[in-house]
Each structure stands twice: as structure tokens, then as C-alpha cells.
Hints:
By secondary structure, the chain is of the alpha+beta class. Helices cover 48% and strands 16% of the residues. Strands 1-2 form a two-stranded antiparallel sheet. A hairpin with a 2-residue loop joins strand 1 (25-31) and strand 2 (34-41). The N and C termini lie far apart (30 Å).
Amino acid sequence: MQADERRERALPVMRSLAQATGETYGLAVLLDGRRLRICSVTGGADVAVNAEVVDEGRCYGAVTARALLAFAPPQEQDAFIALHGRPSVSD
């Protein structure tokens, strides 16, 4: 399934969750060794976090990156590690 298809399937569910909870939801994929956020839906919470800023420079810092890597095929894991190196103890 391509990123466009994933986005179209996920958006209605994400919008419903955001409306019900007030939280923000994001969907990310691994592509060529990078974590790519393909869509997000902002909830009505008073505090919001810009995930792209949080991720900058800390590729292993995003929970979604670690989860995606755990289930990624070996070639995608290798591409990510080749680009970013292995995580440090602080990651």
C-alpha cells in the first residue's frame, strides 16, 4: 500500500479520534532511511507539540521512528542505520 492510500484510509479515523479526544494524531512511514510524516490531524488541546521540530537531529528520539524500525523489513532498517548510524545510549 502506497503512502497516499495509507493517508486516505487513516484520515477519517484520525479526524474522529482528534475530535473525540482533543489530541493530535500523526501518521509516519519509513522511506529511504528517513521517517516521513505523511499526515497529521490537530485536536483541540490547549498544548500542542510540533513533532517535526522534536525529531530534528534526534532520529531515534521519536517513538514512531523506533516503532517503525522494529517492524520494518531488513533493507529499510539497514538504510536507516546507514543514514543515521546506530542509536547512542542517550537515544
